[in-house]
Amino acid sequence: MRILLKQFHDSRCARGQSRARTIAQNPNVAENEAGLTLVEMIVVLAIIALVAALIVPNVIGRPDEARVTVANTDIRTISAALKMYRLDNGSYPTTAQGLKALAEKPTTPPIPSSWSSEGYLGQVPEDPWGNPYQYASPAPGGFALKSLGKDGQPGGEGLDADLTGGK
Length: 167
Prior knowledge:
By secondary structure, the chain is α+β, with helices and mostly antiparallel strands. Helices cover 37% and strands 13% of the residues. It has helices at 11-14, 19-25, 38-60, 62-89; strands at residues 2-6, 33-37, 134-136, 144-147, 163-166. The strands form 2 sheets. It has a 3-stranded antiparallel β-sheet, covered by helices on one side. Strands 1-2 form a two-stranded antiparallel sheet. A hairpin with a 7-residue loop joins strand 3 and strand 4. The longest helix has 28 residues, at 62-89. The chain is elongated, with a radius of gyration of 32 Å. The termini are far apart.
């Protein structure tokens, strides 16, 4: 069995050979037709399936790992902004002021004395799962910052585990 495909251009004809001569050299192929056997097509499909079977399992789990990496990077970025805030103002924002104090000048006491006119973050990011980062400043010299992970609940294991940062 042969599956036939239309042949639109024969490079040998383009090099000066006549179409009749090209066909004469290939008597098994009708004019303007070339083909693949069913066996050849099955071999190609089997190779594609084998390659897909090897690659797909390695790619499937990557989006969740990427989200964890993004969350850890965000935590480091927010921590750096909080440290800059402390250098300028002498203390970290209060828990009540929250991370919003990095994007907008706080209006609740204690009002920062040297808040940067550009802010410390353009906007407060959400974690990669769409939840706000949790911030607390339990003592004047420290802060706690975390993402609740994929499940958005405290605790958990694997992708649901909390990701933390702070000082």
